[in-house]
């Protein structure tokens, strides 16, 4: 970690308003800058939570791992975002229940827990940012749980592909399985089915959707059954 310059927030609109709040600005003056390369483990299950983290540049993958080693991606954190599990752990003074890994080179600001707690009491702007981010991420997590519990895996896979249509998806079948919380073999079987219908083209470590309309029609058909 190294000293952090609060002016770095100016280029992120969602964070710039923190600089105008005196209590938030004081907290940021006591923060540290975190810079790590891609594929760095930021926290593991059971680790203590000592800082409130805000991503400035890059992406973080937060995931849970079963005793058998299977992973499911809970969410990704991009520029200007924070981690709902970090917030929850700071509030409850509990350890992390999942893991976080940088997907790209990462810059983040780390506010020490005691500084964060004091600033949260004093700063309206920081409270709004923390709770708005927390609520949004929690809502997405609830949606994820509902999808896993109640939706077919082929529907969830097709939806993921439709959302990312128009670009080459640089993910392996294993990566997709982790995103969706299922087995690689299941993903591979459905991808081959989609390819045989002419909706996508598979390559080594990449997937290209060539008929998003056809995929959406499959989704609509499956949901109507």
Automatic annotation (TrEMBL):
<dbReference type="Pfam" id="PF13545">
    <property type="entry name" value="HTH_Crp_2"/>
</dbReference>
<dbReference type="InterPro" id="IPR000595">
    <property type="entry name" value="cNMP-bd_dom"/>
</dbReference>
<keyword id="KW-0238">DNA-binding</keyword>
<keyword id="KW-0804">Transcription</keyword>
<dbReference type="InterPro" id="IPR036388">
    <property type="entry name" value="WH-like_DNA-bd_sf"/>
</dbReference>
<dbReference type="InterPro" id="IPR050397">
    <property type="entry name" value="Env_Response_Regulators"/>
</dbReference>
<dbReference type="InterPro" id="IPR018490">
    <property type="entry name" value="cNMP-bd_dom_sf"/>
</dbReference>
<keyword id="KW-0805">Transcription regulation</keyword>
<dbReference type="GO" id="GO:0003700">
    <property type="term" value="F:DNA-binding transcription factor activity"/>
</dbReference>
<dbReference type="InterPro" id="IPR036390">
    <property type="entry name" value="WH_DNA-bd_sf"/>
</dbReference>
<dbReference type="InterPro" id="IPR012318">
    <property type="entry name" value="HTH_CRP"/>
</dbReference>
<feature type="domain" description="HTH crp-type">
    <location>
        <begin position="151"/>
        <end position="213"/>
    </location>
</feature>
<protein>
    <submittedName>
        <fullName>Crp/Fnr family transcriptional regulator</fullName>
    </submittedName>
</protein>
<dbReference type="Pfam" id="PF00027">
    <property type="entry name" value="cNMP_binding"/>
</dbReference>
<dbReference type="GO" id="GO:0003677">
    <property type="term" value="F:DNA binding"/>
</dbReference>
<feature type="domain" description="Cyclic nucleotide-binding">
    <location>
        <begin position="15"/>
        <end position="137"/>
    </location>
</feature>
<dbReference type="InterPro" id="IPR014710">
    <property type="entry name" value="RmlC-like_jellyroll"/>
</dbReference>
<dbReference type="GO" id="GO:0005829">
    <property type="term" value="C:cytosol"/>
</dbReference>
């Amino acid at each position: 970690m190294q000293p952090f310059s609060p002016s770095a927030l100016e280029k992120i609109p969602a964070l710039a308003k923190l600089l105008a709040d005196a209590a938030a600005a004081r907290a940021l003056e006591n923060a540290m800058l975190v810079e790590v390369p891609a594929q760095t483990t930021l926290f593991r299950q059971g680790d203590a939570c000592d800082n409130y983290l805000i991503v400035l540049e890059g992406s973080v993958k937060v995931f849970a791992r079963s005793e058998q080693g299977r992973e499911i991606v809970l969410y990704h954190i991009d520029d200007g975002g924070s981690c709902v599990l970090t917030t929850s752990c700071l509030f409850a003074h509990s350890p992390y229940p999942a893991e976080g890994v940088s997907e790209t080179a990462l810059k983040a600001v780390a506010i020490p827990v005691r500084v964060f707690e004091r600033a949260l009491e004093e700063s309206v702007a920081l409270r709004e940012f923390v709770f708005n981010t927390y609520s949004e991420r929690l809502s997405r997590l609830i949606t994820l749980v509902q999808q896993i519990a109640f939706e077919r895996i082929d529907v969830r896979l097709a939806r993921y592909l439709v959302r990312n249509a128009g670009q080459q998806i640089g993910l392996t079948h294993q990566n997709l399985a982790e995103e969706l919380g299922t087995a690689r073999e299941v993903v591979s079987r459905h991808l081959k089915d989609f390819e045989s219908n002419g909706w996508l083209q598979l390559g080594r470590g990449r997937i290209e959707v060539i008929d998003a309309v056809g995929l959406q029609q499959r989704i609509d058909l499956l949901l109507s059954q």
